[in-house]
Design brief:
Structural class: mainly alpha
Number of helices: 4
Oligomer: single chain
Number of strands: 2
Distance between the termini: 35 Å
Protein name: UvrABC system protein A
CATH class of the largest domain: Mainly Alpha
Largest sheet: 2 strands, antiparallel
Strand order of the largest sheet: 1-2
Number of domains: 2
GO molecular function, one term: DNA binding
Shape: globular
Keywords: ATP-binding, Cytoplasm, DNA damage, DNA excision, DNA repair, DNA-binding, Excision nuclease, Metal-binding, Nucleotide-binding, Repeat, Zinc, Zinc-finger
CATH topology of the largest domain: Helicase, Ruva Protein, domain 3
Helix content: 25-40%
CATH architecture of the largest domain: Orthogonal Bundle
Strand content: under 5%
InterPro entries: UvrA_DNA-bd
Main location: cytoplasm
């Protein structure tokens, strides 16, 4: 049986369920200080900690460089010096464009 998510949310609101956690009692949040613990590093230098020591680190570095180029800022800029728009686009995307890392050949794209 397939249940429409909008129907579930609408009925949850009618029952007084918290709209932020949809009644689960918890929310998924990202702590920027854990994601970028060393603000002196640039995106190209591995500022995004969860993507640094993985088998896909090279892919993620190219992806961040492609996102930076598409959004109009440099991936070589130290994280603490990035404009506010860049600090928002990196974790959240812009919602209006997509891009792929140069040279990956994967055909994968992400919202920028």
């Amino acid at each position: 049986m397939v249940v429409d998510r909008l129907t579930v949310k609408a009925s949850a609101r009618q029952r007084g369920v918290c709209p932020e956690c949809t009644g689960l009692g918890s929310r998924t949040e990202v702590d920027p200080e854990l994601v970028v613990p060393a603000e002196e590093k640039s995106l190209s230098e591995g500022a995004v900690a969860p993507w640094t020591n993985t088998s896909g680190a090279e892919y993620f570095t190219r992806l961040l460089e492609a996102v930076a180029a598409a959004a109009g800022f440099s991936a070589a800029t130290p994280s603490r010096q990035l404009p506010a728009t860049a600090k928002k686009v990196v974790p959240q995307g812009s919602g209006s464009r997509s891009t792929s890392p140069v040279g990956t050949g994967s055909g994968a794209s992400v919202p920028t």
